């Protein structure tokens, strides 16, 4: 039988389909990993912002995690929105029972600017979950929260990535420069080497879900056995094309196009 690569996302929902669990599963599917999902919170949101949030009881989170891991292989996993201390505790303990790469997208605010986590929980995330990661993927505002200072240049991104690995004890850090002006540059530090990922900046405001999509793509490639620098390189290409071919949908920042790569291939034939 053909090898099946299984990727799990632990995250909140986006009923408008561009971010959260929905973005993660679409990305896993596009990249040919078998996608699985465990819900943390049900979020009433769309491209314009967050309307309401319902956190699932942590006992139910635990039950979902156990249901997946007692039955299915997990070759890589990611967490997105994990917005309460009890949920972080459950995930932290459950992580002791699995053995695969763990990518954390430290979701703190939605792209619309709406907060998805309070300050005390941000500290808890650092203490209890970051030391268990293989990779953390903060955007610039999240990086500033994690390192406690301004991060506005490429040099500062490098320094911040080092702090996240050496002081917060992440396995590796990918500081994303999507919020800077100029080219879209991301900086990976794996504890030994720096890797820079650079793409043109696409003139589009349809960036709802880019962070989720990027970390899900990294997770998919890791589930297939790629090295971390390779997985980030491939995922960067995937998210860049997803932004280039994004959809003008909704009244706010539209969603990215998770089947952009497929569309490029199809266009070559049509
Ligand atoms: N306009 C753009 N053109 C090209 N690449 C972009 C653009 N905006 C963001 N990116 C890239 O998309 C990826 C996600 O980065 P970003 O910093 O936007 O993450 P995020 O803030 O978590 O996502 P979001 O903006 O959805 O909240 C990074 O590789 C970043 O460089
Ligand atoms: C449930 C959920 N998780 C994460 C995000 C952040 O999305 P983005 O990738 O736009 O930062 C979101 N809006 N909703």
Question: Any overview of this molecule?
Answer:
This protein has 270 residues and is α/β, with parallel strands linked by helices. It has a single domain (6-269), classed as UDP-N-acetylmuramoyl-L-alanine:D-glutamate ligase, CATH 3.40.1190.20. Helix content is 40%, strand content 19%. The protein contains nine helices and ten strands. It has a five-stranded parallel beta sheet, with helices on both faces. A three-stranded antiparallel beta sheet has the order 8-9-10. Strand 9 (184-189) and strand 10 (194-199) form a beta hairpin. Helix 1 packs across helix 7, helix 5 (140-147) crosses helix 6 and helix 7 packs antiparallel against helix 8 (228-244). Adenosine-5'-triphosphate binds next to strand 9, helix 7 and helix 8. It is an enzyme of class 2 (transferase).
What is the topology?
Blueprint: E1 6-11, H1 20-30, E2 34-39, E3 41-46, E4 49-55, H2 58-69, E5 76-79, H3 85-95, E6 102-104, H4 119-129, E7 135-136, H5 140-147, H6 154-166, E8 173-176, E9 184-189, E10 194-199, H7 210-223, H8 228-244, H9 260-269
Parallel strand pairs: 1-2, 1-5, 5-6, 6-7
Antiparallel strand pairs: 3-4, 8-9, 9-10
Helix pairs in contact: 1-7, 2-3, 3-4, 5-6, 7-8
The site of adenosine-5'-triphosphate has 21 residues, from strand 9, helix 7 and helix 8.
